[in-house]
Amino acid sequence: MPSPSITKTQAHEVDAGLLDRFAAIVGSKYLITDPAAQEPYLVELRGLYRGHTHAVLRPGTVSEVAAILKLAHETRTAIVPQGGNTGLVGGQIPHAGELVLSLNRLDRIREVDATSNTMTCEAGVVLAKAQDAAAAAERLFPLSLAAEGSCTIGGNLSTNAGGTAVLAYGNARDLVLGLEVVLADGREWNGWRKLKKDNTGYDLKNLFIGAEGTLGVITAAVLKLFPRPRAVETAYVGLASPADALALLNLAGERVGGTVTSFELMSRTSVEFALRHGPGCRDPLGTPHPWYVLIELSSQAAGLRGALEDLLGAAAEQGRVTDATIAASLDQRKAFWHLRDMLSDVQRFEGGSIKHDISVPVAAVPDFIAQASAAVEALIPGCRPAAFGHLGDGNVHFNVSQPVGGDAAQYLARWDEMGTVVNRIVTELHGSISAEHGIGQLKRDLLADVKDQVALELMRALKRTLDPNGILNPGKVL
Question: Which are the contacts of 199, defined by CB distance < 8 A and separation ≥ 6?
Answer without folding.
Answer: none
